[in-house]
Write a structure and sequence with these properties.
alpha+beta; eight-stranded mixed β-sheet
Amino acid sequence: MTSGPAVPSVSDSAGARWRLRPMRASDLDRALQLEVELFGPAAWSYAMLAEELGASGRWYVVATERDEASIGPEPVVGYAGLWFDGDVTQVMTIGVARDRQHLGVGSLLLTALLDRSRELGAEAVLLEVAVNNPSAIAMYEKFGFQRLGLRKRYYQPEDVDAYTMRLPLQA
């Protein structure tokens, strides 16, 4: 895994604290739980997640939640990763626990990926998003991503189409 920058944190109005940190091997079990919760039959396996985490050019982070009234480890509520090929970065995945969606966690994760992409000198960021995921599409468009095309039956085994999207980083 490529080492990266310090990662930001943000509070929401309810006082919960979202923090980002580099993903560790010890996070893979939780990432797998989220994969299954969010992506069902198309979820990545433990082996796929582990391979991604250790692969060249990859950078993965997790979002944790700090609750001042609780003790113990901060639970992982989201994760995201990218791949840099030397020219552009590719968002490999972003996932946020269903009960933590629409609270800013996804935007925080995407911001970290974009910041890392800029640090790497990427010309642009590419991604695919399921056409039946309007919340994710809206978030990407809010950040300035534009639709490039459609990949038919991209997500398997559900046969769900994906939009390809691009965000230029350099003028």
